[in-house]
Amino acid sequence: MRIRIDRDRCVGAGACAHAYPEVFDQDDVEGLVMLVGDATDEAATRRAVVQCPVAAISVGTAANE
């Protein structure tokens, strides 16, 4: 699974970091999303994607990248 983040779209709500803190966090300067680990749990990753209020995160698989 490939995770794409759009930091220009991110508003720093933190929903992704709350939903899956092993993979998502917020930087200390602007509070924007950043990847901090490997997404090993597809369901948790998709929950984090869906919870983003501005759709700043998307995922793809080898079939749809």
TrEMBL record:
4Fe-4S ferredoxin-type domain boundaries: 1-29
InterPro entries named among the record's database cross-references: 3Fe4S_ferredoxin (IPR001080), 4Fe4S_Fe-S-bd (IPR017896), Fe-S_cluster_ET (IPR051269)
Keyword Transport: yes
Keyword field: 3Fe-4S, Electron transport, Iron, Iron-sulfur, Metal-binding, Transport
Entry-linked SUPFAM superfamilies: 4Fe-4S ferredoxins
A matching Pfam family: Fer4_13
Cofactor(s) annotated in UniProt: [3Fe-4S] cluster
Its biological purpose: Ferredoxins are iron-sulfur proteins that transfer electrons in a wide variety of metabolic reactions.
Protein's name according to its UniProt entry: Ferredoxin
